[in-house]
Design brief:
heterodimer, A: TIM Barrel, nine-stranded mixed β-sheet, B: alpha+beta, 3 helices, about 50% helix
């Protein structure tokens, strides 16, 4: 007689009276392949855990976003937000698609230069720009987005010192009706700081004001907030034209569009609640077109969208290290990836699929990472089929921020591969080695040797 | 370990404890183990039976059976007097 397929014995208490109008999901479709390549083969070749990106998804998502804006507004330019994912291969996909670079540090600026982005197409944002960074950006004619008055004054001094006229924009913060209101970056619109900065730039006559910029928040779920922001930036641009006769070349609406991830504490999954890129585009472009610009003065619309363009293209493949039972009877599964490399698990309930076939029986599980730290919880509650040691899972929608905010903590960072439109996998970042980590350490001579007493343990 | 005498098992995997009204669901292999316990089989006998019937090994079922028996104990389905 042929033996039956084994599945761990499960028993679950049936709780009555727990109301849920959506019912309980009992079937989980396994995700055994990504873009046609088997999860098992990818892990065999590159190890586990493993980040996998889909070139096709990146390009399709980008093209969809460009279509959403360009069909509504005549002048649109995207700038790839380096901090979202600055692996060079990823940046170059966006640059191949026509995207500029948007950077927020000297390090990111250098990466953009190394990727061959021309200076005038690198937007330099952020509160931390050293004198050397600013000098380089001035020399390269990059648009510098001023964050605070100290920067404005320093930039003016450098312009004099270098006898150049840097291209600048100011970052503006404002009340768009959302909470929390981001007011730590840039100059405030409502209290007049933004106008003070504009007056200083134009009347100082050392810097060339070419744009106005805002970035109203992150993981924004309200397209209307962007309409408010676009009205307020348009009001500044039109005011500058009226007061100084100067035409502002661009309005940079920043980023912050939500991806399809589910924020912790959300009642409904992100896939059902996140506005589409068309909704964001409609809000922004309608506000700009109705603001009162003449056709020739319509500013270029720059978008620094990061998360919404890359999140869905990223997967994290991982394996089960162990199963255990907690004191209150809950099942716990320990994975080989944790908050060290899946930083976004601090704020998302990531969708996680088994990578192999299962029956329809499921169990409530706490999913832990491998770190010997209590905070290492990937999902505090997830319903999954019974996973065995060495089974694989696929974590969805991890393309944004994880490959930049990951930590080399306790374990080393894994490899990253991209599945190309050629249907093959390509390594784009090798797995870290102890040599990588220790290459920056220096051992003083007096700490080289030690002798440990022996004989305490037999 | 023995299952309480009054525990009702249905062939679809529904488990009912008339003593306190608790109900549970088990998967097919879990049901087969509960039936073994009802028949008074020892843990060793259950392990051997599962290894014979399923594509698994002794170590795996040893770990999983330990966990499963702990759970049915925690759910008050076992007879403490036996």
């Amino acid at each position: 007689m042929k033996k039956q397929i084994y599945e761990r014995p499960l028993i679950q208490r049936i709780n009555t009276g727990m109301m849920n109008k959506f019912g309980t999901k009992t079937e989980y479709a396994p995700v055994s392949h990504i873009d046609g390549l088997a999860v098992k083969d990818l892990i065999n070749e590159y190890g586990s855990p493993l980040f996998v990106l889909s070139e096709e998804t990146i390009r399709n998502t980008y093209r969809d976003a460009v279509r959403a804006f360009k069909t509504r507004y005549p002048k649109v330019q995207f700038a790839w937000s380096y901090k979202t994912n600055y692996i060079n291969a990823v940046c170059n996909i966006f640059h191949q698609e026509g995207s500029w670079a948007e950077v927020v540090s000297g390090f990111e600026y250098q990466k953009a230069i190394n990727n061959g982005v021309p200076g005038p197409k690198i937007i330099f944002n952020g509160p931390d720009k050293s004198d050397d960074d600013l000098r380089l950006a001035i020399t390269n004619n990059s648009p510098i987005h001023i964050d605070h008055l100290d920067e404005l004054y320093r930039l003016t001094e450098l312009a004099e010192e270098m006898n150049k006229r840097p291209n600048v924009a100011i970052r503006v913060n404002m009340d768009t009706g959302i909470y929390p209101m981001w007011d730590r970056f840039g100059f405030n619109y409502e209290n007049g700081q933004a106008w003070d900065a504009i007056n200083k730039i134009i009347l100082g006559n050392r810097l060339e004001l070419i744009g106005v910029h805002c970035h109203i928040g992150t993981f924004m779920l309200s397209p209307q907030a962007y309409a408010t922001a676009a009205y307020k930036l348009s009001d500044l641009a039109l005011g500058i034209k009226k007061k100084f006769g100067k035409t502002i070349q661009y309005i940079d609406m920043g980023g912050g569009f939500a991806s399809k991830n589910t924020l912790k504490g959300s009642f409904l999954p992100g896939a059902d609640t996140t506005p589409t890129i068309d909704q964001f585009a409609e809000s922004i472009t309608t506000a700009l077109l109705n603001a009162g610009f003449t056709e020739s003065d319509l500013p270029l619309l720059i978008l620094e969208t990061g998360r919404a363009l890359i999140d869905e293209a990223g997967y994290l493949l991982g394996s089960v290290l162990a199963n255990k039972r907690l004191s209150d009877g809950r099942r716990a599964t320990i994975m080989d990836f944790g908050v060290n490399i899946l930083f976004t698990s601090f704020w998302y309930d990531h969708k996680i699929s088994p990578a192999q076939e299962f029956s329809s029986y499921t169990e409530d599980t706490v999913m832990y990472g491998p770190l010997c730290m209590n905070i290492d919880v990937v999902r505090s509650h997830i319903t999954l089929p019974p996973l065995r040691k060495e089974d694989h899972v696929v974590v969805h929608t991890v393309g944004a921020y994880n490959m930049t905010q990951w930590m080399q903590f306790i374990a080393m960072r894994p490899a990253v591969v991209i599945i190309g439109t050629d249907g093959k996998s390509h390594l784009i970042r090798s797995k870290e080695t102890i040599e990588n980590i220790e290459s920056n350490e220096v051992m003083p001579d007096f700490l080289r040797k030690h002798e440990l007493a022996s004989g305490i343990l037999k | 370990m023995k299952l309480l005498k009054n525990i009702a098992l249905s062939d679809t995997g529904f488990v009912f404890n008339p003593g306190n009204g608790d109900s549970f669901s088990v998967n097919p292999i879990g049901l087969s183990i509960l039936k073994d316990l009802q028949e008074g089989k020892s843990e060793d006998a259950i392990r051997n039976r599962v290894v014979e019937d399923y594509q698994t090994d002794k170590e795996t079922i040893e770990k999983d059976l330990y966990d499963f028996l702990k759970m049915i104990e925690q759910f008050n389905l076992t007879d403490y007097h036996e």
